[in-house]
Fold this sequence. Notes:
By secondary structure, the chain is an all-alpha fold.
Amino acid sequence: MILTKKQALNTITKRKCAFSNLPKRFRKNREIALVACNYYPIDVAEEYNNDKSMIMHLLNKGICVLEYASKELKADKDVVMLAVKLDGYDLSYASKNLRNDREIALTAIKSDPYAYLFVSKELKKDREIALKSIKQEGMYLGRAPSEIQADKEIVLAAVENDGKALQYADDALKNDKEVVITAVNNYGLALEYASPELQNDKEIVKIAVNNNCDAYKYASSDLKSDKDIVKSALSAEKITCSFINQIPPSILKDEEILSLCLQQEEFAEQWAGIVKQRENIKKYYKEMGVDLEAEKNDNIKEN
């Protein structure tokens, strides 16, 4: 039995047969192909991969098909512009020349900041293009050229979006107080990427440990022994045993600090091997050779 056009359309609309399985004479019939766009768009795109009007028709329907278009159409600005408006990721399928087209690059990034990864090397250096992407996804700073990583405005935008992006900043900006404060405000552990000088900056470290107590491990040795720093870390939203276990014994001798530690119920339970209950505090100090009463009297005399 010979399949008729009406039967071919019926098999498409009722999904009884994929467009790609139809005889060639029906696949080349534009009326049937246009109907099939609603049911088997990828099949149609592959069949009409070099037909600009059909590919544009599919794109106008909101279907991402640039991936299936011919090499010629991937180099057609009209086609690629429509594709990247729909999905910036489609810039990855565009020709080399169009990935170096500023208008297309900006359009793609507006749709999806990830498109920055596919623009040409030359356009990655473009401040406007880099900023539009990186302010939406700070970690893309890691895929930017050195000129961009040394641009303070762009780096500030990156670390404001994601503090971890500080790791990709130019060394000079890792030593910039404004940049580092912005980073640790967003992500306390970004203190790891700050310069040694700023890891020894009390203001910065307090902000970092208050954001995330585990940032304490990246503080300078001097600041790890600073009572104010430890108190700031103990004020963080979540306290971890890894942080508590790093507190120097000299700080744990302080009754206020130890009391703050024990107020953390989750910690107190996990730290039961060291201090089981509040009433064991004196016993703990005694084992450390600390005379609480003597220290208390000395502090009163000093004051």
